């Protein structure tokens, strides 16, 4: 997938933590941000579903992927302390 440059504004402490994390893991700052966004948006759950179901038509694949995402989010909520 093509990457595109963008500008975002984040709290300086969050940015500093991301830079420190990236340096310790020897990865780019942008990789930390992209990974965090993918996880927050549920794309980390959707991509494997899309990859497994390439033979499905796109609309059916989307329905299945979003269903999996919703199930993962529900599971995450159930496991969170109240």
What portion of residues belong to β-strands? under 5%
Rg computed from alpha carbons, rounded to a whole number of angstroms: 16 Å
Q: Give the count of helical stretches.
A: 4
Helical percent range?
over 70%
Mean pLDDT: 86
Query: Biggest sheet, open or closed, and with what strands and sense?
Result: none
pLDDT < 50 stretches: none
Which structural class fits the helix and strand makeup?
mainly alpha
How many structural domains does the protein architecture include?
2
Shape: extended
Order of helices and strands: HHHH
Distance between the ends: 38 Å
Number of DSSP strand runs = 0
Structure description:
This protein has 82 residues and is mainly alpha-helical. It has two domains: 6-39; 42-82. 72% of the residues lie in helices and 0% in strands. The protein has four helices and no strands. Helix 1 crosses helix 2 and helix 3 packs across helix 4. The chain is extended, with a radius of gyration of 16 Å. The N and C termini lie far apart (38 Å). The relative contact order is 0.08. The model has no long low-confidence stretch (mean pLDDT 86).
What are the defining features of this structure?
82 residues, mainly alpha, 2 domains, extended
Strand and helix layout:
Blueprint: H1 12-25, H2 29-41, H3 43-52, H4 58-79
Helix pairs in contact: 1-2, 3-4
Describe the structure in brief.
With 82 residues, the chain is mainly α.
């Amino acid at each position: 997938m093509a990457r595109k440059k963008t500008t975002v504004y984040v709290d300086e402490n969050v940015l500093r933590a991301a830079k420190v994390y990236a340096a310790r893991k020897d990865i780019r700052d942008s990789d930390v941000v992209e990974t965090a966004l993918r996880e927050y948006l549920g794309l980390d759950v959707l991509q494997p579903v899309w990859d497994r179901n390439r033979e499905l038509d796109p609309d059916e694949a989307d329905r299945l992927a979003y269903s999996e995402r919703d199930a993962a989010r529900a599971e995450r909520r159930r496991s969170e302390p109240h």
